[in-house]
Amino acid sequence: QVQLVESGGGSVQPGGSLRLSCAPSGSIFSFYAMSWYRQAPGKQRELVASITSGGVTNYADSAKGRFTISRDNAKNTVYLQMNSLKLEDTAVYYCNFEKLNLGKSYYYWGQGTQVTVSS
User: Fold this and answer.
1) Distance of CA 32 to the CA centre of its chain
2) Which of 60, 63, 68, 77 is deepest in the core (most CB within 10 A)?
3) Given pLDDT bands bounded at 50, 70 and 90, which one contains residue 89?
4) Within 13 A of 40's CA, how many CA atoms are on the CB side?
5) HSE of 60, CA atoms in CB hemisphere, 13 A
6) How far apart are CA 3 and CA 66, in angstroms?
7) Distance from C-alpha of 50 to C-alpha of 95, rounded to nearest angstrom
8) For position 17, what pLDDT does the model report?
């Protein structure tokens, strides 16, 4: 079983920055896509950004120009650099890894890390 461990959440003021990290604990698998989702209170979980093993990225409109997703394939680690944070970025952020095996996709979730933007 793959366990994803997230770190880097916290509280910042509007305009501040945070960097989230996520890596599997003890896994020897390689993963195809790595993504960050977030869920604000009372809202559905939404995709923030994703990156494939080849480095192709995709961002939600709300993240474009402010957030940068990157990955270190050797470490199986994904990062989310968040700049110019806004009040509406407050949410629990989850990483999600996709593993491909024999044509099937398997998805794994982190436990979530709280990001709070407040003045």
Assistant:
1) 14
2) 63
3) very high
4) 11
5) 15
6) 28
7) 9
8) 98
Angle at 90 between CA 24 and CA 39, to 5 degrees: 55
Residue 107 CA to residue 94 CA, distance in Å, equals 12
Q: How far is CA 66 from the centre of its chain?
A: 14
Take residue 69 and report the two structure tokens written for it. Answer: 């997703």
Torsion of CA 34, 37, 104, 77, to 10 degrees: 20
In this prediction, residue 1 carries a pLDDT of 78
Closest CA to 76 of 47, 44, 110, 101: 110
